[in-house]
């Protein structure tokens, strides 16, 4: 998982491995070629199943991504906002999907949305569907597709604990496979909640609260982490994680939010001043 650190696609990495194992164990290494079977594979949802079915196997399945939604909304002048309009847009897109060369069509309509029917300044003069396009004829195409207003992201708070042993080793834990940053290394800490977090240090120590906070934004919320550091003796037991020797610790193996926690501690004086960690080179 360290190879994926910082990319934000951790679930995809885990599902990619799970999917490969299922194909190897249950399908003798041969990728399923039906839409229904594809939907049973880890990490494959309706969009991916339709894309593989049509592009790889030329089955008449309909691909509906953001580009296709925009094309359908303008072509048929659909003013119902997304995501409410998704079923209607899918029905319209299905009606246009050909029985033959479905893969070529799927790629063509996605490319049409990506290069011609763009969100801003669409090149309507170059569009092969400019004549039947109802939105363009009505002059409403630039405001389509409509979308519901985005809700303000809530702010969650937590506490991260950086324990440094006297030999320079760091206390790290592997996050549970299920959930945000699943399977990634990180600093022990509290749950991330919208209220005030309750102290939950991984061991008894003289914890020092650093000035400032580590801030990060996820898809659905903003995160604010208080960072506490402590220097602990060799024989100090921990309730969470394991100590990683300094020579084996690489900041690049941490997800971005955990790197921000480390950076805050690295910039702090004295006890918060962390020994230099190796950066992974590529």
Report what the structure shows.
- With 282 residues, the protein is α+β, with helices and mostly antiparallel strands.
- It is built from eight helices and seven strands.
- It has helices at residues 10-26, 35-38, 46-57, 66-75, 86-96, 102-115, 134-138, 256-266; strands spanning 155-165, 170-174, 185-186, 208-209, 214-217, 222-232, 242-244.
- The strands form two sheets. Strands 1, 4, 5 and 6 form a four-stranded mixed beta sheet that branches.
- Mean pLDDT is 90; it is low at 271-282.
List the helices and strands and how they pair.
Layout: H1 10-26, H2 35-38, H3 46-57, H4 66-75, H5 86-96, H6 102-115, H7 134-138, E1 155-165, E2 170-174, E3 185-186, E4 208-209, E5 214-217, E6 222-232, E7 242-244, H8 256-266
Parallel strand pairs: 1-6
Antiparallel strand pairs: 2-3, 2-7, 4-6, 5-6
Q: In a few lines, what is going on in this structure?
A:
The chain is α+β, with helices and mostly antiparallel strands and 282 residues long. Helix 4 packs across helix 5.
Question: Main beta sheet: strand number and arrangement?
Answer: 4 strands, mixed
Q: Which CATH C-level class of the largest domain is it?
A: Alpha Beta
Q: Tell me the series of helices and strands, N- to C-terminal.
A: HHHHHHHEEEEEEEH
Which secondary-structure class do the elements indicate?
A: alpha+beta
The CATH superfamily label of the largest domain reads Nucleoside Triphosphate Pyrophosphohydrolase
Report the β-strand fraction as a percent range: 5-15%
DSSP, total strands: 7
Helix content: 25-40%
Distance between the termini: 15 Å
Tell me the domain tally.
Answer: 2
CATH architecture level-2 label of the largest domain: Alpha-Beta Complex
Q: Residue ranges: pLDDT <50 for 5 or more in a row?
A: 271-282
Q: What would the CATH topology of the largest domain be?
A: Nucleoside Triphosphate Pyrophosphohydrolase
Shape: elongated
Please, what is the average pLDDT? 90
If you compute it from the alpha carbons, what radius of gyration comes out, rounded to the nearest whole angstrom? 25 Å
Tally of separate helices = 8
């Amino acid at each position: 998982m360290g190879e994926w650190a910082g990319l934000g696609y951790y679930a995809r990495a885990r599902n990619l491995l799970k999917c490969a194992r299922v194909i190897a164990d249950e399908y003798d290494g041969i990728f399923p070629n039906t839409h229904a079977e594809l939907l049973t594979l880890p990490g494959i949802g309706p969009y991916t199943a339709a894309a593989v079915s049509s592009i790889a196997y030329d089955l008449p399945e309909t691909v509906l991504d953001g580009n296709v939604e925009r094309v359908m909304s303008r072509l048929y002048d659909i003013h119902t906002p997304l995501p409410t309009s998704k079923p209607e847009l899918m029905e319209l897109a299905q009606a246009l999907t050909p029985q033959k060369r479905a893969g070529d069509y799927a790629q063509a309509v996605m490319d049409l949305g990506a290069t011609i029917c763009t969100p801003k300044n669409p090149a309507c003069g170059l569009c092969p569907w400019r004549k039947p396009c109802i939105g363009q004829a009505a002059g409403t195409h630039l405001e389509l597709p409509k979308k519901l207003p985005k809700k303000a992201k809530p702010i969650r708070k937590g506490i991260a604990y950086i324990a440094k042993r006297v030999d320079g080793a760091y206390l790290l834990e592997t996050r549970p496979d299920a959930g945000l940053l699943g399977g990634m290394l990180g600093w022990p800490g509290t749950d991330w909640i919208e209220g005030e977090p309750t102290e939950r240090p991984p061991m008894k120590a003289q914890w020092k609260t650093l000035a400032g906070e580590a801030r990060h934004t996820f898809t659905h919320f903003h995160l604010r982490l208080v960072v506490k550091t402590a220097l602990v003796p060799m024989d100090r037991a921990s309730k969470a994680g394991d100590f990683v020797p300094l020579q084996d610790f690489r900041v690049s193996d941490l997800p971005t939010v955990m790197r921000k926690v480390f950076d805050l501690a690295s910039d702090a004086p004295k006890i918060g001043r962390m020994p230099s960690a190796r950066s992974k080179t590529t």
